[in-house]
Amino acid sequence: MADTTMGTAGARPTLFLRNATGLVKAWSTFDAFVYSFWSVNLITLGLYGMSYVYTVPDGQLLAAILVFGLLTTFLVVTYAMLVAVMPRTGGDYAWQSRVLGGGLGFVLSMTGWWFTLFLWAPIYANILVVQFFSPLAYTLGWTGVATFFTSKTGIFVSCLIVLAFVSIVVTLGMETYARIQKVCFWIGLAGLAVVCGLLLFYSQSDFQNAFNREATSLFGAPANAYQGTIDAASKSFGGSSFGTFAFGPLLLLLPWLAFYLLWPNWGATLYGEVRGAKELRKPFWSMFAGLWVTVAMVALVVILINKTIGWNFYQSANAAYWNNLFAVQGAPAPPVPIWPYPVMFAGFLVDNHLFQALLIIVMGLWFFGWAGTLFLSSTRVIFAAAFDRVLPSWAASISAKRRVPYGALILMIVPALVISAIYAYRPDFTSVFLDATAVLALTFLATVVAAIILPWRRKDLYEASPIARYKVAGVPLITVVGVITGLFLLFMLYEWSFNPDNLYGTSLQKTPNSVIYFVATYVVAVVIYVAARIYRSRQGIDLARIHHEIPVE
Amino acid sequence: MPKVFFATDLHGSEVCWRKFLNAAKFYEADVLICGGDMTGKAMIPIVEENGHYTVTIASDRQVVSAGEVGDIESQIRRRGYYPLHVTPERLQVLDENADVRKETFRQIMLDGVRRWMDMASEKLRGSGVRLFVCPGNDDEMEVDDVVRESDMVELGEGRMVEIDGFTMISTGWSNHTPWNTHREETEEKLGERIEAMAKQIPDSARAIFNLHCPPYRSGLDEAPAIDSDLKLMHGGRALRPVGSTAVRQAIDKHQPLLSLHGHIHESKGAVKLGKTLSINPGSAYEEGILMAAVINLDAKKGIKSYQLVNG
Fold this sequence. Notes:
The complex is a heterodimer. Chain A is mainly alpha-helical. Chain A is about 65% helix and about 5% strand. Chain A is built from 22 helices and four strands. In chain A, the strands form two sheets. Chain A has a two-stranded antiparallel sheet with strand order 1-2. A two-stranded antiparallel sheet of chain A has the order 3-4. The longest helix of chain A has about 45 residues, at about 280-325. Chain B contains seven helices and 18 strands. Chain B has helices at about 15-25, 70-80, 90-95, 100-125, 140-150, 185-200, 245-255, and strands at about 5, 30-35, 40-50, 50-55, 60-65, 80-85, 130-135, 155, 160-165, 165-170, 205-210, 220-225, 240, 260, 270-275, 275-280, 290-300, 300-310. A six-stranded mixed beta sheet of chain B has the order 8-7-2-1-17-18. In chain B, strands 9-10-11-14-16-15 form a six-stranded mixed beta sheet, with helices on one face. In chain B, strands 5-4-3-6 form a four-stranded mixed beta sheet. In chain B, strand 4 and strand 5 (about 60-65) form a beta hairpin. Classes of the chains: A mainly alpha, B alpha/beta. Chains A and B meet through strand 1, strand 2, helix 1 and helix 9 of A and helix 1, strand 3, helix 3, helix 4 and strand 13 of B.
């Protein structure tokens, strides 16, 4: 017999293990934290998403970030508990199909993790342009390159670059990319420290002088572009004060913040592959730390932006840029015709273009360390549906030599190419892309509903899980946190869908293209499921039975 | 034509074993095949002291009364562990003496297998369902003797058996693993073991290879990479093929109709290797979920349909 080992708690042994396959030592919570931290990427998604908060000028951003962090903690607890009960590859799909039923689970999770992820490719591409290509090209004096990426063809090319990058990463394999991510993580953090250091040690007047200097030098703007930016924005924007606090506007900021802070659970579709995930504390701490370290960093960055760049200027720059881009009536072009990238602004404080370019490149690692996982979770969800025979088996095919999941990749890349072309050449479809966050939130809501009813719908699994002992006044904790999370998600879904001022550009009444697109995706999902049921039935396979519990007694 | 229900790597989970036995009726299966690694990986002491019982399950220390011990035992068995009643003195002996610990573990495991064989007899007697068990690399050699004693369960290891016109060969031996378990050998020896059975098969187009270890680089053998200290690398996201080249060569050479595998719990899937449909249903024994494959065999088509299920 193989040697035995022993687990202990206190002085007495509590568990005797024998040597057996798969008994590995502790899973690194840090690795999972890094994944979660990347998912709520404060530079790429964070700065991009927060550039829209000028639309709620009376909203206190710092307070809203903290409130969002608090409410999203309930989402983290809900997902961590689901992972502890069912650490299955496929995440949302697996949980929804096993608790809500196969058909409902397929439709709700596939629309979120498959059909909506197409929309994120152009969003990633836009972030790559405004945070990397354009600022770098302007800094190096390549104005033609910078303006190319603002053209329709340039936008489409940037989408192709993102899709090519994602494909290469998937082809290289997750092990190689995990190494790349770690390098990007540490160098990116060093870059952020430099940005924060610059914003901390220089004053607002230093920044005004630096901005005016570089605006002329790099963009050919007239003198005092700092004030010129505020003036340009003032035609369509009433200004913003960092100290303003009002509860209503604070709540209206939450749907904007969801763009980047709602995803600490992004890796939940992968936890099924991680031994040790069944212990509640590991998925919880990895997601919780990913969320709150980001919240703390964002708070620091926002405070430093207010101190050195100036809150009203920063929001005016955002307003001037977006209002001009969206052709808001009366909104003139800003003197600096580029997305207000705080990293670039911080770089201006050092009068050296080489340093500025280097800073943009280093901070670009926040993109390249993050973007490779664009379709990773989607491929896992497609795998799960293929294993269940709802999708054809080739959807889960993996190439023999390089282990590339080419079936799932084709199902993601080809539609993403079409969607990217629509994004680039049909601006009237913009609202569809703004809805990308809302549809994923709807998928999360379905999972949260599954979590709420789990103790009753899958009583056996729940009672055998480590979360069964957590209760509040006799009510299962997963139900309590699920209800709070559900209310939070419902509030945001309501605002996205019905905000009377179309604040987020996604109100159903004002965006018929979005309504058509998303209704179509749900219809397609239903059609796929029904067709699979009929087709498999002819093969003697009853799809409805896949998730049925075999009686124990 | 036979409908086969295949599950593997139950690792002592009594809930999964009960579901496995009930699957015959639930899926109207004619043949049940348990692919190996039946026995549990851990025993949890229930310490009797001063009229109460102390036990720690999943880091949760509980002190229960005699009336609650039965429920605690069920919880432990459900996870695939073995409950072990001890006094504080006996616990200390187990803690300090590796030989006593090994022997206790061996006994409790074999008792567990006997218990399962009895349950199978009780459940399937007179049903007409055939049940094959082929112990895996994590199962001690003595498990085979316990299975042989059963009047309902047929031992698969090292044999060629007929199933309604189809031929099945089985082995639970694997290539070497970092854990140095009970049925491991070199690829060369594993190849010889499989070939000794495979060469007797009359018709590959009606053959089933029930080989615990999955074929190398088949997509059914992807396990999280670990370092020399058995720690997961890159948060478990780095996957490596760890299947057997001998199994792969045997499938490539003989091209059986169907090959059934387990061993790598994370690598659930079904792939075509030439003419062979190879299946690893995966395992989620810790949650009490029975992951399995239902295969409809057909005299003309070979495999009429298959489905991976979770029950």
